[in-house]
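Take a look at this chain, tokens included, and explain the fold to me:
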Amino acid sequence: MFKYILKRLFISIFVLLGVSIIIYTLVRLIPNDYIDIKFAQQLQNGTITQEQVNQFKDLYGIGDKTFKGLIEGYFKWLGNLCTGNLGKSFKYEKNVAEVISEHMWISFAIAVVATILQFLISIPLGISSATHQYSIRDYTVTVFTMIGISLPTYFFAAIVIKIFSVNLGWFPSNGLIYASKTYEETFLGGLTKFGDMLHHLVLPIFVSVILSIGGLMRYTRTNTLEVLNADYIRTARAKGLSEKKVIYKHAFRNTMIPLVTLFAGILPSLFGGMMITEQVFGIDGIGRLAYQALKEGDIPFVMGYNMFLAVLTVIGTLLSDIMYSVVDPRVKLGK
């Protein structure tokens, strides 16, 4: 096991290196960079000249877009990365690592709650749908699943805001706390702030859960149907075991084996934020900040954010493989 982990970590270095080259090249090839966007209005009004804009580009290290300039820029970024420096964000004017560490935790909180609810809802519904195949319950779950898979995030979020925030007034539509409120530096004030944050996060979490449970429900249903047709399930039933015991003791564990592979994508999603959801609800999570940085060509932040997600993906994939061997003893990790 230890040798396998070391081997995977060694291979991951080259994977991350390849990912960084692709991301850096794509970001540098964006037609408009940070300086073009920042000084577009001044350049149009004539308050600044193109020569001055080019000087700013050279100052930020993004002026040369030739192949040589891309190579030099990438190795400069890579050299800083090797010293633990992700660079300074153009837009936020802070170190990239500092911006990520400050804003990823609210995204993490939303994602953790949404993921827990997703599994608690999806797996029982998927199993129930499989054990009642072609029934009204199965068709209802299938329709609900298709709705969740098909609806775009921004569209469903707009509907939720219209109903629960605008029409009913039950929940706020954006932010984390009420801007009109003031809080005293007391324990009670802290609790009030926490309560306001929970109140603001109900709708984002609701949208995330509804749009994510569809795929997991279908995946669970398909896996359960395959397991229920296995010989050992028929043998368990032939021995006179109750249907509940057959499903939840014998079938459920093997149903979970393919679901373990989903953990590879859970880790980056927990810390990476939800760009569209955070943008719609005005939450300053790491996803929203990354979206705004990408629009404005903030190369250091985009590189740091994507490499952060790449590292989490590599770790998640490794943990998924290890968990797979734990859940299914027949699976042996290669040396």
